[in-house]
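Here is the promised in-class demo. Please do not try to memorize the tokens; focus on the logic of going from shape to residues.
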């Protein structure tokens, strides 16, 4: 069980997260949906300490952290149990796919080069890139770069995998390969907190859907409950607008 309680974050007078609380069971795929600016990415970045939350607690598999008074040691411990997949891949351009994955294993987990290499090769094989081990990012497609990013995150064996709109920077024809990799990862039992605008994918892969609006979770439930029987008018408006803007084949 992962529990986040009363998480809040403001940038000056702009409140981005307003007393957010949620529970994530082991093996859950929790999807965050909502309009741009609702606070979805900030929530993920606050959990991973890329943004400093103003207040709130997290209990992650026995590690309890108060964001108000978090220490450097606690921040490191939290990052050791979480891993982030970014919109823009965030790969080291001067390092191969293999070395991008090895970096965290050696610097954070303090593994030997031999141990890190073995794990990195295994994870690249898992995401279907065993033939791209020694390729630099500039020689990989966007979809392949994102799969390296997923492999890098999985190599850290996180208790919670955070995915921040992992297909938003991809050309449409490359989206499918990344979504397939995430689906495979979910089926293997990886606990995830996912931000995505791919509603059909959210419906298929998520065990729970949270609708975030103006920094608050205003609706949550199973994909069927949220998509077919939303309780909040704002949720209905968001979903109606989304599907009206897509052609019929996008409909759930």
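The designed amino acids, position by position:
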């Amino acid at each position: 069980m992962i529990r986040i309680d009363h998480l809040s974050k403001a940038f000056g007078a702009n409140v981005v997260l307003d007393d957010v609380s949620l529970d994530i069971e082991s093996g859950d795929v929790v999807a965050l949906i909502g309009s741009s600016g609702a606070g979805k990415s900030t929530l993920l970045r606050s959990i991973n300490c890329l943004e400093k939350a103003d207040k709130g607690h997290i209990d992650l598999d026995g590690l309890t952290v108060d964001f108000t008074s978090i220490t450097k040691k606690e921040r490191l411990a939290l990052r050791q149990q979480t891993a982030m997949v970014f919109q823009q891949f965030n790969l080291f351009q001067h390092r191969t796919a293999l070395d991008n994955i090895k970096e965290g294993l050696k610097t954070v987990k303090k593994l030997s080069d031999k141990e890190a290499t073995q794990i990195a090769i295994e994870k690249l094989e898992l995401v279907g890139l065993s033939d791209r081990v020694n390729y630099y990012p500039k020689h990989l497609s966007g979809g392949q770069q994102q799969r390296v990013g997923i492999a890098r995150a999985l190599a850290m064996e996180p208790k919670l995998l955070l995915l921040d709109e992992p297909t938003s920077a991809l050309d449409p024809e490359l989206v499918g390969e990344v979504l397939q990799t995430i689906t495979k990862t979910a089926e293997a039992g990886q606990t995830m907190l996912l931000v995505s605008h791919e509603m059909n994918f959210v419906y298929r892969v998520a065990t729970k859907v949270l609708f975030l609006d103006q920094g608050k979770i205003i609706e949550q439930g199973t994909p069927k409950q949220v998509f077919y029987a939303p309780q909040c008018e704002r949720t209905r408006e968001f979903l109606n607008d989304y599907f009206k803007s897509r052609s019929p084949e996008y409909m759930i």
